[in-house]
Amino acid sequence: MRPFPIAQQLAVGLVLGLWASAVGAGDENEQPPISYSQSTPHNCVSKLQARLDQDELRLDYDEGQGYLRALLSALQVPVESQMLVFSKTSLQRDRISPQSPRAIYFNDEVYVGYCRSGEVLEISAVDPVLGAVFYTLEQQPAEQPRFLRQTDNCLVCHSSSRTEGVPGHLVRSLFVDAGGQPILSAGSYSVDHATPLEQRWGGWYVTGTHGSQRHLGNLIVLGKDVPRPVDNALGQNVTQLHGRFAVENYLAPHSDIVALLVLEHQTLVHNRLTKANYTARQALEYQREMNRALGEPETKRLDSTTRRLQAAADDLVEALLFVGEPKLTAPIAGTSGFAATFARAGPHDRQGRSLRDLDLRRRLFKYPCSYLIYSPAFDELPVQMRDCVWKRLWEVLNDRQNVESFAQLSKSDRQAILQILRATKPGLPADWTAAAGP
After folding, report:
1. Burial state string for 161-172 with b = 16 or more CB within 10 A and e = fewer than 16
2. Is residue 322 within 8 Å of residue 364, measured between CB atoms?
């Protein structure tokens, strides 16, 4: 390879040095082109605030749960999604215990946390550009309720290797004592759809049936040491929580097992979408700076850009297609009606099929391709990243490469996913709609 002229070597060295210096001065996500904390969010919460400011909507305050019910209604979050966590692992940890669990509700675009007698509601919105954006809403009646954006407090836990290195969402499973304190010496698990069931839901209440399969839900450790082997027989196949705490203090008496399973898939995909978004923007910015230094057109593709885009796209596709999901060995059923509420949202093809159709016998979904492929976070990926993702999905669903990690997808799975996407997903690449299928 012919060496660069001295002037170009100096220019390249200067670019690399400035780039490293900027990143070294603080978190890379706080530097351009991301500028996380300084950027203006555009998500369901910021849109709701605008409606409140313009008097298009009011949030009714309730003396029992404050703004909770009104907020869920305004954001179209189903009460059936309620899950209850009793580990002291969030902003209002002093309010949380097995006798006073924290309630979490969610839909495709937002997560809402509620603590009994808490000072604030905690909200995490999925921003198509910024990823997870965190807010609090004071639980005091106000003429003009206002969502306060949080950065430092939340990012301590929600921007780390556990969240793909981006502002994201985190589901943990821990052993918890009678006061709600995590017993960290006993270990913990970060949970997503690939986590074995027996490692999930420590510190969570779980309602639903699951046969002989085992999990750590509903387990309260007496003392500060976790007995080995762990005996959680009384925590299995629990269908009601009366007697464990005052369920009448919550919107529902459930902590639905199906909602938990969906949440754990969803948080992984949301984090991978944000990682793909950030990676593309950072790689393209680096490419522009490098090309300027070399006197090349700013859009000239660097090999490093292609590698970074492809790696992030591959990781996202693996999450979208449920790579690593363990097989269920018995049917699973929830208690709150969440499964039916979730599945109704569609969209459906002419045969009535949807990527939201649940299986719950062999695996979580009947057609294992994430419904979040319809989300704004997917649609607003930088076009270079979105092209990589569509290309990789096309290769996998048409079985163009013999990749072991996708072996769980049968031929009929791949064909059904392709057909459903062709019928329900706007903006597919031309080769998807032109081809007849596998």
Report:
1. eebbbbbbbbbb
2. yes
Distance CA(380)–CA(281), nearest Å, equals 12
Residue 382 lies in a domain: yes
CA–chain centroid gap for 39, Å, is 21
Is the Cβ–Cβ distance between 427 and 381 less than 8 Å?
no
Per DSSP, the residues of 185-253 read GG-EEE--TTS-GGGS-TTEE-BSB-TT----TT--BSSSS--SS---GGGSS----BTTB-GGGSS-S
Residue 425's domain spans which residues?
A: 264-434
Pair 142, 120: CB distance under 8 Å: no
Contact 237, 218 (CB under 8 A): no
CB neighbour class for 348 (10 Å; exposed up to 12, middle 13-18, buried from 19): middle
Residue 68 to residue 62: CA distance in whole angstroms: 8
Residue 76: inside a domain: no
Q: Classify residue 153: in a domain, yes or no.
A: no
Average pLDDT of the segment spanning 380-408: 91
134 - beta bridge partners? 124, 150
Q: How far is CA 346 from the centre of its chain?
A: 19
pLDDT at 241: 98
220 within a domain of the structure (yes/no): no
Question: The pTM is what?
Answer: 0.92
Q: Which of the two residues, 402 and 317, has the higher pLDDT score?
A: 317
Q: Answer positive or negative: Cα dihedral of 347, 350, 354, 359.
A: positive
Q: Measured between alpha carbons, how far is 138 from 119 in angstroms, rounded to an integer?
A: 6
- The rounded distance, in Å, linking the Cα atoms of 19 and 121 is 39
Beta strands in 192-311 (DSSP E): 204-205
Number of domains the chain is built from? 1
Distances (CA, A) of 286 to 159, 299, 316, 323: 22, 11, 22, 31
3-state secondary structure of 81: helix
Mean pLDDT of all residues in the chain? 91
CA distance 349 to 7: 59
Closest CA to 197 of 299, 314, 329: 329
> For residue 5, what pLDDT is reported?
52
Q: What pLDDT does residue 27 have?
A: 83
